[in-house]
Write a structure and sequence with these properties.
single chain, 175 residues, mainly beta, 10-stranded antiparallel β-barrel, 2 helices, 10 strands, 11% helix
């Protein structure tokens, strides 16, 4: 019992050391400009892994991005490995303070994002349908620009503060 408590304490202490402030990346190049990166067509390939590491879903996404007035519209067309399809349309708006606010049909409330350097931190509640039930999942989403065409995205998914799994995506802009 003492050993389990000690392991739990160590895990908690290590998780407290995780980077949560996007400004940690403020000097990292290349600088991510969301509007520039997502305007046009972008492909993404991804997977969802359960917390034990098992890959349970793979997918490809084609994203059509365009600027309409003061909004960045991202039309995401998902095709999953089982053949199912899904569409998500994000409407993103940059606030004067530099933070981003976003909405989508399957997102509860506002998504809040902030960019610094090559990174973008994005947090929101995703309404995830599974076997006839919809779950409100907390998403802690980080994007990292690798070069002008390539970006990596890691998103932790949790419910009641407990990690459920992770989504990993690789984005590539079409030229």
């Amino acid at each position: 019992m003492i050993k389990k408590c000690l392991l739990l304490l160590v895990a908690f202490a290590l998780s407290a050391c995780a980077i949560t402030d996007v400004n940690h990346y403020k000097d990292v190049k290349p600088k991510l400009d969301l509007e520039k990166y997502f305007t046009g067509t972008t492909d993404a390939w991804g997977m969802f892994q359960q917390r034990n590491g098992a890959v349970v879903k793979r997918f490809h996404v084609v994203i059509e991005g365009k600027k309409v007035a003061d909004e960045l519209i991202l039309d995401e067309q998902f095709v999953y490995d089982d053949g199912t399809k899904q569409q998500r349309i994000w409407k993103l708006k940059k606030n004067p303070d530099g933070r981003w606010i976003g909405n989508a049909g399957d997102v509860q409330g506002d998504a809040i994002g902030e960019a610094a350097g090559n990174a973008f931190k994005w947090q929101y509640t995703l309404l995830l349908p599974v076997d006839g039930t919809t779950y409100a999942m907390q998403m802690d989403d980080w994007m990292y620009l690798i070069d002008e065409q390539t970006m990596v995205n890691r998103a932790r998914m949790s419910k009641f503060g407990i990690d459920v799994g992770e989504v990993t995506l690789f984005f590539r802009r079409r030229t």
